[in-house]
C-alpha cells in the first residue's frame, strides 16, 4: 500500500523504514574467540620407522606365531635341549628340487612316528651391494615355512620355529610334527 493512500479503519500506519531499524534491539556480536594455537605441519605425526620392511623377516613372523605345542617342550626346543630325530639338508638345492624333497621328508617322518625334525635351508647368498633391486636373502629360508603351511604338509606339522644356534641357528628350522593317528 502506498504512503499516500488512505488507511482503512483499525489499520496501523506503516513504520518509516529508518525508524524500524532504530527500534530493533542491537545485534549481539559473537563472543570473541581465543586465537588458534600455532600449527606446524606434521607436529603431531608419529616418527617414521627406520626402515620399511612391511612384511618383516621370516624369523619375526615365526616368532609371532602362537605356540600350538606343549609349552614346556617348546621352551626346551627353543633352547636347543631337544635333539632332532631326523634332518634334511636343502642347502644348495633349487626350489624345484627342494619342495618335493621337503614334503616327502615331512610325511615320511610323521609316518615313522618322529616328532622333531630339523630342516636345514642355509642362510642364503649374500646381497649384492651393486644390485639396484632389493631382494630377500635366502630363497629357501623364506619358502620353507610357507611350504609347511600348504595342505600337503600342514596336516603333519604342528609347529615351525627357527633352530637354536647349536642346530644351525637362522639357517635351519625345527619342525615339530603331529602324532600319527
UniProtKB/TrEMBL annotation:
Annotated Basic and acidic residues bias: 61-71
Pfam families xrefs: Smr
Domain of life: Bacteria
Annotated stretches, region: Disordered: 1-71
SUPFAM superfamilies per UniProt: SMR domain-like
InterPro entries: Smr_dom, Smr_dom_sf
Domain Smr per the UniProt entry, residue ranges: 88-178
Name the UniProt record assigns to this protein: Smr domain protein
Organism: Salipiger bermudensis (strain DSM 26914 / JCM 13377 / KCTC 12554 / HTCC2601) (Pelagibaca bermudensis)
Amino acid at each position: 500500500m502506498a504512503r499516500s493512500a488512505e488507511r482503512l479503519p483499525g489499520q496501523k500506519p506503516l513504520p518509516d523504514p529508518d525508524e524500524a531499524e532504530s527500534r530493533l534491539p542491537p545485534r549481539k556480536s559473537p563472543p570473541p574467540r581465543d586465537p588458534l594455537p600455532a600449527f606446524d605441519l606434521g607436529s603431531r605425526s608419529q616418527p617414521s620407522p627406520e626402515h620399511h620392511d612391511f612384511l618383516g623377516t621370516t624369523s619375526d613372523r615365526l616368532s609371532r606365531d602362537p605356540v600350538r605345542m606343549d609349552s614346556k617342550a617348546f621352551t626346551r626346543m627353543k633352547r636347543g635341549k631337544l635333539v632332532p630325530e631326523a634332518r634334511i639338508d636343502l642347502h644348495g638345492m633349487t626350489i624345484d628340487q627342494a619342495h618335493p624333497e621337503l614334503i616327502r621328508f615331512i610325511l615320511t617322518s610323521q609316518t615313522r612316528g618322529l616328532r622333531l625334525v630339523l630342516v636345514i635351508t642355509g642362510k642364503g647368498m649374500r646381497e649384492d651391494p651393486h644390485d639396484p633391486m632389493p631382494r630377500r636373502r635366502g630363497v629357501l629360508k623364506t619358502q620353507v615355512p610357507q611350504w609347511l603351511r600348504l595342505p600337503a604338509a600342514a596336516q603333519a606339522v604342528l609347529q615351525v620355529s627357527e633352530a637354536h644356534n647349536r642346530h644351525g641357528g637362522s639357517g635351519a628350522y625345527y619342525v615339530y610334527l603331529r602324532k600319527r593317528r
